[in-house]
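Box 3.1 — From sequence to structure: Signal peptide, CUB and EGF-like domain-containing protein 2
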Amino acid sequence: MREFKLLILHIVDHNLAKDTTLKGPGNIDRYLNVNYPVSNDQIEALVTTAGQCRQYVSVRCYEMSTFSGQYWWKSRQGYDMANWGGAPTNSSKCACALSKNCAGGRQCNCNSNDGVWRSDSGYLEDSAYLPVSSLHIYDLDDSSEQSVVTLGKLQCSGAKDACTFNNGNCAHSCTAIGEQAVCSCRDGYVLAGDKFGCLDVDECSSFNGGCDHVCSNTMGGFQCSCRTGFTLDINGFTCTDNDECTLNKGNCSHTCSNTEGSYRCSCPTGYTLGSDLHTCQDVNECHIGNGGCDHYCTNSQGSYSCSCRPGYKLDSDGHTCLEYMSKYTTKTCECRLRAEPPHTGLGTHLYDLTTLIYGETQLWASDDGGQSVYSVLNRFPNFYATHKRQTTGYPAAASDVDCVKVFQNCPRDCVRMTRLILGKEKLGMKVAGEVFGRLTNTTLGQNMCDKLRREIDSPGRTIAITYDPHACGNEVVTYPLSQRLCCTLVPSPVGHLLAWNSMCEDGDTFSIGNIIG
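Predicted structure (token representation):
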């Protein structure tokens, strides 16, 4: 804070000439009205805040009793005053009376009326009544009487205390310490470099003003506010999340979940949230892929159901339509893989691929001996588009209608199923097997070598696809696989083992991994 000493002098002029001469004869009372070039309010402010004000008055007189009138001058308020410069207020004296040297022992020299030029002068110093608003000069009715009057300018200096005048030039608060003024500022402001002005403090620039979210600076203060979805706490700083779901579920038609600063509507299964993000609308599952139903799809509020055409029943998955078991034919066809022998016959049975079941309207299959049945087209939609291979070994036509269907379709269908089941992996397909007395996954080729139990050198043994029409006839070879089977004895920590040679070439190196997959 800056300290300063107030040294100010104010001088206010008026309309009277420096020396005003008054002569008789004429009215015994003469009045000189005084006007100042500032307003009464300005004069009032000056004399009430100044430390000291004074105004010089002087009168030179001849053959007069000047101060014998009722009053000698009027105050700024218009009061009648009876004292002259240098004498106490309303003491009816001039300065000479204080030193008891007035002419003729009177209270003023200009009351002598003795044919000699006399004078009284001095400063009026009572700020409570200054400045002079009018002068009253008495006893000018004879031709020999005359007077010369002088009224000085109003002079004010200093202040009653350092803060009285203009608040010590401080923008906010002023504290007077003797003749010094010390400026200070209200909360939210700091004192400017000139030590008089006050500058706003931006509270938001430091730690966000302590606000959780938004801090807005104001003149002399700051204000915290919160983002949408939050409420300002009573402490004025902390933002508390609004749980919009407590009021009418946030206008959600089903489920409302509160989130930080917001909320979210959601729908149960079978519904989707509408464009208003509040209303749940039913999803017509039947419009998308027939709801996954084999036959008929019926939409309902929030769900759907599948049903089947006559002659079918809905499977446990709720989507698949199965022919009633009573509709299954007893005629089946089992697709197998065998090692083609070097002589006539079927060769060693190596692997059961699947059993085909010819229903009234579609083809079924079972890979586990009939424990479970599936629709071939459901599992292999491209079944009938699979490349048809030339087949061999067709038996003579049978008289049974169902057997005719088996003989007409089974050879081709077994080739198709073999290609689809083996896929690109062929003999490398993983199957369940037993190694060292424990069940494990191994390759189909290794599984076949384990069943043959003998070494087969390159170029290997042909693998043939066969079908067994069961009640309709005997098992028949239908087509050979392109990949040949080679089995090689390889040493191991537990003795020689028979390993599948996937490349069917001499000299390959094998490991236990070839065997156990």
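Summary of the box: The two ends are 91 Å apart (CA to CA).
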